[in-house]
Write a structure and sequence with these properties.
Blueprint: E1 14-20, H1 27-40, E2 44-49, H2 54-57, H3 65-83, E3 88-91, H4 93-97, H5 103-113, E4 118-124, H6 137-143, E5 144-151, E6 165-170, H7 177-185, H8 196-205
Parallel strand pairs: 1-2, 1-4, 2-3, 4-5, 5-6
Helix pairs in contact: 3-8, 5-6
C-alpha cells in the first residue's frame, strides 16, 4: 500500500508531476494520476496546467490557462472528496510563472522548493519516444525519473536511450480532449468521459460551443 504522506521524515518526498493542457481534463487524466500515485507510492501527485503549451499553440488555439485551471481544480477537489483523501493536487505553478511552458523550468522550480524531493514526471507512451525534442531535455532527465503511463494490455513507445524511466500500466480508457470538445460542440454525451464538475463548468460558461 502507498506510504502515508509525511510519516517517514527521514525519507525524501516522492512527488509526481503530471503536466498537460487539460483542455478539458477528463476521466482518463484522473485515472492516470491516481494509478501512478498508487503504484509508485508517491507522497504527492501534482496535476500541472500548462500556461502556454508551445508544441500545441503553434498549430491551434487553446482555452485560456486560467479557465483550464479552474476546471481542473474543481475536478480534483471532487475526486479527492470522493476518494476520501488529498491524493491529487491542482497546480498553477506554470501559470504563475507565465510565458511558454517548459517542463525543465517546472522541475527546476519544484526541486528548489521541495528540499531534495524525488521527482517523477509523467508522460503518455504515445509521446515517450519524442522526449529528446523537448526544451532542454538533458535537464529534464537529470531532475526527474520519467514515468511512462501505458494503457493496460497495450505496448507503446519508450523514451530514447539514456532516459531513466519506469512504466506504469494505467486503465485503458480511450478518451481524448479533442473528442470531448467535439462532443460538447455537437451536443453528444460526455457523462461517461468527463467529471460532472467539468461538464457543469463547460456548459455554464459556454465553452467549446456548448449550450446548457
Amino acid at each position: 500500500m502507498p506510504r502515508l504522506p509525511g510519516v517517514d521524515r527521514a525519507t525524501p518526498q516522492r512527488i509526481g508531476v503530471f503536466g498537460g493542457t487539460f483542455d478539458p481534463l477528463h476521466l482518463g487524466h484522473l485515472a492516470i494520476a491516481f494509478e501512478v500515485r498508487y503504484q509508485l507510492e508517491l507522497d504527492r501527485m501534482l496535476l500541472v496546467v500548462a500556461n502556454d503549451p508551445w508544441q500545441k499553440t503553434v498549430f491551434t488555439s487553446v482555452t485560456p490557462a486560467s479557465v483550464r485551471f479552474e476546471m481542473l481544480e474543481a475536478a480534483v477537489a471532487a475526486a479527492n472528496e470522493s476518494a476520501g483523501s488529498t491524493a491529487l493536487e491542482a497546480s498553477d505553478l506554470e501559470i504563475r510563472r507565465g510565458g511558454e511552458t517548459y517542463t525543465a523550468d517546472t522541475l527546476a522550480s519544484l526541486a528548489s522548493e521541495t528540499d531534495g524531493a524525488e521527482l517523477f514526471v509523467v508522460v503518455g507512451s504515445d509521446i515517450a519516444a519524442s522526449l529528446d525534442t523537448w526544451e532542454r531535455p538533458d535537464e529534464v532527465r537529470k531532475l526527474a525519473t520519467t514515468v511512462v503511463a501505458e494503457r493496460a494490455g497495450s505496448s507503446g513507445g519508450r523514451p530514447p536511450q539514456g532516459w531513466d524511466h519506469v512504466v506504469v500500466a494505467v486503465p485503458a480508457l480511450e478518451i481524448s480532449s479533442t473528442d470531448v470538445r467535439n462532443r460538447f460542440r455537437n451536443v453528444r454525451p460526455t457523462e461517461a468521459l468527463v467529471p460532472p464538475s467539468v461538464i457543469e463548468y463547460v456548459r455554464s460558461h459556454g465553452l467549446y460551443g456548448s449550450t446548457r
